[in-house]
Structure formats: structure tokens, C-alpha cells
Amino acid sequence: MKKELFFVRFLKNPLKIGAVFPSSRFLATRMIEKINFKTAKVIIEYGPGTGVFTKELLKHQQKDTLVVLIESDPYFYQKLVEKYSGKKNIIVIHSSAENVEEILKDLQITQVDYIISGLPFASLPKSVTQTILEKTKRVLETDGYFITFQYTLYKLADFKKYFPSISLKKEYRNLPPAYILSCINKK
User: Fold this and answer.
1) Where are the transmembrane segments (predicted)?
2) CATH number, residue 123
3) What are the C-alpha distances in Å from 6 to residues 27, 42, 152, 154?
4) CA distances from 15 to 12, 84, 161 (A)
5) Which pLDDT band, with edges at 50, 70 and 90, does 2 fall under?
6) Residue 84 lies in a domain
């Protein structure tokens, strides 16, 4: 997708899109570096947008690993369906990350190994952030990872409330530079 189209989607709904340009391949590589693809059975991606992280996930996906993409923007959802429809072990869902428990119940999945997120938590209402983080914690396996990136550490305290064990890295080769938060689910 061209950067101009991404920018138009941002202008139409800045609270949901949260970025002016798609994430860089450098950020995508950093986002997946904690994933053990040899053992992962289920990986969810919140807000895949143009699929920059999805592309990296699928490069390393094992044949028995299920990847579930949850996208709320109708345009991005349609583009993801066009790209991945009919591909083995990839499911594209048009919904919000707030509905992750219901989505997994419908798919008959009880726990998830990894959740990657491109959601703009800094621009989401506090109640939405809390709902997503609470449900994310519940669906993750013990010692599973919730990995997200943020342009600021504005909501770091919210993440720590649900995930006290967080490692932080910064990727400068992104516009703008981004923090990668790797949150381990300790129960």
C-alpha cells in the first residue's frame, strides 16, 4: 500500500490508525524477535493495518501455527482478506481487540502464545486500553508475550498494571522512532 493511502486512512480516523506512515521493516523485525516460532501454536495480531508485521510473522510461521489477524478498519480488513484469503492457518477477523475473548471462543481457542499489537494505545480512551489489556492478559498463556510498540511511554503505567515484567527497546529506524514493549504474562 502506498504511503499516501495510509495517510488518507489516518486522516479519516486518527484515533484508530494512530500513525501517519506504515511501520518500517526494522520495527517489524524488532516486534517479532521474542517469538519462538518453533513452539508457537497461536499468534494474534491486533490492528495489522497494511500488514507490515503480518509479513514478518508469516515469513517465520510454522506449518502448524495459527495466525489470527484482528482488524477494525474496514478498508484495511478488506485488503487483508484479499491478500490472505484461502491461505492455510491465517484467519482475518473484522472486529476490535476488545472482543478478543469472544473471537477466540468462536474459534475454539482457549489460550494464545503471542499477541503482537499495532494499536495506538496513546490515543485510545483509558477504558478501552484497560479492557484490551485485561482481556489480553486473560487469553495469553503463562509466560506468553504481549508485544506492542508506542511512540511515547505515556501509557507505560497502564501496561505495567497488567504486565509488571516488561522489557523496553527503541527502534530509531522508524518514522517516528518507536518503543517496543515486550510484556511477559506472569500469573
Assistant:
1) none
2) 3.40.50.150
3) 17, 28, 21, 24
4) 9, 26, 23
5) very low
6) yes
Amino acid (one-letter) located at 113: D
Q: How large is the angle between the packed helices 25-32 and 52-60, nearest 10 degrees?
A: 50
* The C-alpha cell that represents 174 in the structure block: 522508524
In a domain, residue 75? The reply is: yes
Q: Could you give the CA distance from residue 158 to residue 161 in angstroms, rounded to a whole number?
A: 5
Quick: pLDDT tens for 80-113. Answer: 999 999 899 999 999 999 999 999 999 999 999 9
Sheet hosting strand 42-46, strand order edge to edge: 90-94, 66-71, 42-46, 112-117, 140-150, 178-184, 165-171
Q: Please say if the pLDDT value at position 6 is more than 60.
A: no
Domains held by the chain: number: 1
pTM here is 0.89
What type of residue is 164? P
Question: Residue 69 in 3-state DSSP?
Answer: strand
| Helix, strand or coil, per DSSP, at residue 169 | strand
Is 8 inside a domain boundary?
A: no
For residue 74, whether the previous peptide bond is cis, meaning omega lies within 30 degrees of 0, is no
3-class secondary-structure state, position 175: coil
Structural domain span for residue 120:
24-184
